[in-house]
Specification:
Largest sheet: none
Distance between the termini: 32 Å
Strand content: under 5%
Structural class: mainly alpha
Oligomer: single chain
Radius of gyration: 14 Å
Shape: elongated
Length: about 90
């Protein structure tokens, strides 16, 4: 599993954002968890509890991104581009 590949994004985010409760910080953390779980599930296809956890985290991240897009579209676009994730089809 690739564990240390996403630490620079978090450290960069911590320097920029001192508030770990901000939407951007939470989305970055959820994205790192999603990428870790995805790499885990590539090896362990029948780990259904991890699949359920992944779906829950995906839903949380989607709700946060939806909130951010409604409140501030510029910050939303910037975050989507920086994390290299697809834009939501349903908002």
């Amino acid at each position: 599993m690739v564990k240390n590949a996403f630490i620079p994004i978090i450290s960069q985010e911590k320097k920029k954002e001192e508030n770990p409760g901000s939407v951007e910080f939470q989305v970055v953390n959820f994205t790192n968890k999603i990428r870790r779980l995805t790499s885990h599930l590539e090896l362990h296809r029948k780990d259904y509890l991890s699949q359920r956890g992944l779906r829950k985290i995906l839903g949380k991240r989607q709700r946060l991104l939806s909130y951010l897009s409604k409140k501030n579209g510029i910050r939303y676009k910037k975050l989507i581009n920086r994390l290299d994730i697809r834009e939501s089809q349903i908002r």
